[in-house]
Write a structure and sequence with these properties.
7 strands, 199 residues, elongated, 9 helices, Rossmann fold, alpha/beta
Length: 199
Amino acid sequence: MVVGGGTVAARKVRGLLDAGASIVVISPTLTPELEALAQDALIEAYMTYYDATLLESLMPLLVFAATDDAAINDQVVTDARALGALVDAAHDSSLSDFGSMALIRRGAITIGISTDGAAPALAVSLRDQIAALIGEEYAILAVWMGETRDAVKATLTDADQRGDMWRRVIGSDILALLRDDKIEQARALYDSILAEDGV
């Protein structure tokens, strides 16, 4: 449940949708983005002011207090905790049971950046800078490494040997080749590095 319908709430909703959550938003007004999500039935929206009875009837596992009114957010925190829900208070991280992070997702890779609620705009800025450095080539390499991980462990029983081999993979030209869309060459190099160690 996200209590609030502004830009902070919309940011929370985007992250929750990416994670596959079922989302209820409570707010008398919504950003155009949230309105569109509600119209497309991607979220459920209650166009009303916050009322604890809604919380009680819906019994959410996670509650995000994301209004622009600190007193309402405080009440949401109190009410949610009374029902045993975990709370993220956008206005005061010290009241939160957990924190939201600015995320970068590349296939199996997830990078989270948090300022512990002190500077969300800084977390977003850092996310954008790091995202520019971490392209889809990393997702492809992660898939290959996952596919061969068991074979590598079976062949190289020494953890130091495995670590050395993975460092050679990561430090090679594989990522540059993938960035240049030379997938076959990248895979050939990957396989040759593994073959050097008998994998």
